[in-house]
Amino acid sequence: MRDLLSRDLSRLPDLLEQARASALEFLTALPERPAGVRPEPSSPLGLPDAGLGAEDALALFRRRYEAGLSGSAGPRYLGFVTGGTTPAALVGDWLVSAYDQNLSNSGDSLATSVEHEALGLLRSLFGLSEDFEGAFVSGATAANLVSLATARQWALERLGHDVSEEGLWGLPRVAVLGGAPHASVLKALSILGMGRRAVQAVPCLPGRPVMDPKALEAQLVALGGAPVIVIASAGEVNTGDFDDLEAVGQVCRRHGAWLHVDGAFGLFAACSPAHAHLLRGLAYADSVAADGHKWLNVPYDSGFVFTRHLAQQERVFRAVAAYLGQGPDLLHRTPENSRRFRALPAWMTLMAYGRDGHRALVERGCALARGMGEGLAASPHYALLAPVTLNIVCFALRSGDASRRDRLLGALQADGRVQCTPTQYADRPGLRAAFSNWRTGEADLPVILAALGAAALRV
After folding, report:
1. Which CATH number fits the domain that encloses residue 270?
2. In terms of Cα–Cα distance, which of 112, 165, 137 is closest to 333?
3. CB under 8 Å to 127, separation ≥6 — which residues?
4. Could you tell me if residue 337 is inside a domain?
């Protein structure tokens, strides 16, 4: 192995050039690459006794797997809520691997200062006050986990228990209220030992997947002043709709409830003056979760969490050992001790494109979503299942069951021009399209609508 490592190190400039050329070839072909693919998996390779070396390993990967990679970084991948990677973020991410900094401890690198600065830039972008302390995590799922762990600590401290030291044994259940919480919230509750069934559903407003603030208040009154965690959505996953954060926040403030805002992609509405009103009342939040690999357009995996209760957060995630030092390091804010330098791609793209660039990115995505909604509403094949609030288009075939919808998705994937994801909304099998990639432009919209029209005719 030492011989291979020494040889690869001596040829590192050429190896990096080969990687650069491979990446450029892939990125240049993104507009033509199938948006989604479903290849037949290859039989797995065994571990070689003698290594191949970096050049042959790269060649093997490209020959064996690259054709089966989707164009998820491209302009017409509308599945999930998936951003691309801006040029500045890509540069930053390549440097992250080269620098290989561990963001746990601030004692030997300025990398932690970059993370704090990047978090400050994000606070400014979202209009959050200095009360909100943050950290980078792997995505909104981890951000929800951190937020709810902190909320659990807060709730049980109010009952006289330090759950971070004593555990949950024999403690009363903490009520969690929400209208349409994302699956990642339920996953976090499972991990935390609170359970998915801890969520008590708050009735939603008619025809919308958002909480009725009056119903929320009635449930809080019925709980009699017990500590409660309320989950609000800033961008519901199917429709992009928003809970009324101002009304919900005022109710939570009156009853002393913790308000967590899951803003995985919707938090970026703050970038656009035309949509910022959707976040009115965000200042009432006790914790906020969001993704970077969605509308910030930095590579996977990237997310961030903000809280106004750093003391409770650090009690949960504190890691104390003599070799770690005793400073107020970022490792006390997240589940990870070893942490990648995720802040650098975010810092790079924020500094490269600024407030105006991110406003334009968000507004273009919203305009494209509206355009797609208008095109589908005029189509003989499709119907909108919900108004287009932000960047999500929720729609369905005008006729047919889930099996026809699934055949449609298969036809779209075979066509290759556009990728959507399935959903179930308003008791109908539907589809979702999410616009959050910086590469997507007006020229893509007629291609998307044409692909959807052709697929509908085939099923």
Report:
1. 3.40.640.10
2. 137
3. 270, 276, 279, 282
4. yes
Tokens 């929400």 locate to 178
Are the C-beta atoms of 374 and 419 separated by less than 8 Å?
no
pLDDT in tens, 344-377: 999 999 999 999 999 999 999 999 999 999 999 9
Range of the domain at 235: 90-349
For residue 128, CA distances in Å to 132, 155, 210, 230 come to 7, 23, 23, 19
Model pLDDT for residues 56-85, shown as the tens digit of each residue: 999 999 999 999 999 999 999 999 999 999
38 and 419 Cβ atoms separated by less than 8 Å: no
Report the domain count for the chain: 1
User: 160-177 pLDDT, tens per residue?
Assistant: 999 999 999 999 999 999
Tell me the C-alpha distance between 265 and 144, whole Å.
13
Residue 284 within a domain: yes
pLDDT value, residue 1:
61
Candidates 313, 311, 299, 306; CA nearest to 343 is 299
In a domain? residue 394: no
And the tokens for 391? 């960047």
Is 320 a member of any domain? yes
Per residue, the 3-state secondary structure of the chain, as one string, reads: CHHHHHHHHHCHHHHHHHHHHHHHHHHHCCCCCCCCCCCCCCCCCCCCCCCCCHHHHHHHHHHHCHHHCCCCCCCCECCCCCCCCCHHHHHHHHHHHHHCCCCCCCCCCCHHHHHHHHHHHHHHHHCCCCCCEEEEECCHHHHHHHHHHHHHHHHHHHCCCCHHHHCCCCCCCCEEEECCCCHHHHHHHHHCCCCHHHEEECCECCCCCCECHHHHHHHHHHCCCCCEEEEEEECCCCCCCECCHHHHHHHHHHHCCEEEEECCCHHHHHHCCCCHHHHCCHHHCCEEEEECCCCCCCCCCCEEEEECCHHHHHHHHCCCCHHHCCCCCHHHCCCCCCCCCCHHHHHHHHHHHHHHHHHHHHHHHHHHHHHHHHHHHCCCCEEECCCCCCCEEEEEECCCCHHHHHHHHHHHHHHCCCECEEEEECCEEEEEEECCCCCCCCCHHHHHHHHHHHHHHHC
Pick the closest to residue 191 from 141, 237, 231 (CA basis).
141
